Structures are given as structure tokens and as C-alpha cells.
Input
Amino acid sequence: MRRSKTQSYRGLTLRVMGGSRPTLGPGKVELIARIEQTGSISAAARAMGMSYRRAWQLVESLNHAFTRPVVTTAVGGVRGGGATVTPFGRRLVVRYRAMERAASAAIAAQLRRFESLLRPRTGRDKRR
Output
């Protein structure tokens, strides 16, 4: 699986679970951010190298998991429809990123010690 360009915390991937299923993680947060940037689920999916169908499924799962819609959509029309991240969706991303920063800060010393145990990456490793 390819690393997200927007993922900024080395060694830490935060996934927020809702029951036994991941409700929010770096991929969904990136999708929300890209929808916000592009105004389109299909453009956001293309930018992430993901199929439109998968992006649509993720948007539906987000909207179903939370008490309010995260993304709203408009069908067709003169401007061709589009998608909008709701104010609730924007707040969700801000909260997720704050949790990610807090979790990263909480384990920073342990993470540095752990990373010191790893072999240095070579040019060959970076292609994987």
C-alpha cells in the first residue's frame, strides 16, 4: 500500500475505531481533504490513485458512521454536480489531526528508540 503524501507522522498511523470497524484513518482523512480541494469525489479519487467506486464507498461509510453528513453531493446539472465537505466534516478532520499530533507527541521518545533499532534504509528499500 502506498504512503499518503499528506501523512506527516513517521511510524504512527492513527485509526479511530467505531466498534470493531475503522471509522476514520489517514486514507479517509486524505479523501475528505482532497474532496475539499477539488469539489469532486472523482477528482479526489484520481489524485489518490483510487477508483471512483472505492472513493464513493468510503464517502458513504463516513456519512453512515457519523451523526451528521461529512460530505454532501450534487447530481449533474449545468456545472456537472460535485461534492462538498460539510462544516462537520471539516471539524472532523481538524479533530483527527489534533489526535494524530497528540498521539505522536506522546510516543515520540519511544518511537525514536524503536527507530534506532531498525536498519538504515537503502535506495533499494525506498522503491518498495
In short: The domain at 16-118 is CATH 1.10.10.10 (Arc Repressor Mutant, subunit A). The first strand starts at residue 16 and ends at 18.
